[in-house]
Amino acid sequence: MKTPPAALLRFVVALGRDRRGLAAVEFAFIMPLMLVLFFGTVEFSSGVAVDRKVTLMARAASDLTSQATQVVDADLQNFFSASVGIMTPYDPSPTRVTLSEIYVDKSNIARIQWSKAGVMSAGATQATVVASSRSQGDIVTSIVPSALLVSGTYLIFSEVSYKYVPTVGYVMAKAGINLSDVAFTRPRQSVCVFYAPTSATMPTTCSTY
To answer: What global pTM score does this model have?
Structure first.
């Protein structure tokens, strides 16, 4: 049985006026965008918070070292552990902290006197002291602010690197973002801060290598 043209026309007009389910259809269209915006905001905010903590870690490590007159590996382990603790509640394991002492010679050339690094293993409560990528005698003049290049002086130099991996990878860099910062302080209690693995081998004069 064929549908009369008039009835078919009324059906089409009624269908065009039917608004039932419109909100659900619109919600289905905008829901993906809302989720991207929501998780993007959360991840971006977390990234900014972690970046701020990286800056605080660099300052803390440099500040703690500059207050000492001499340090051994046990002291540096405590400094690394304290600075990495700033990362709470975020995972501290991607953190690497490097502490170095710099001497600026009469030609305003800055050289590394000693350097050690600290890392934090997953689940650990104390940092581990490891070899630094910097060696005694390395020239680092280019990374020292010109205002700090005062001949005959020493600087405590801290470097922090952290790889922030977002929980929801599709809203930011899935592989992670490398965050880093540095800090410089001058020794507060002495001309330089002596370093040796143990106190038995501690030098008695400031190195000018």
So the answer is: 0.80
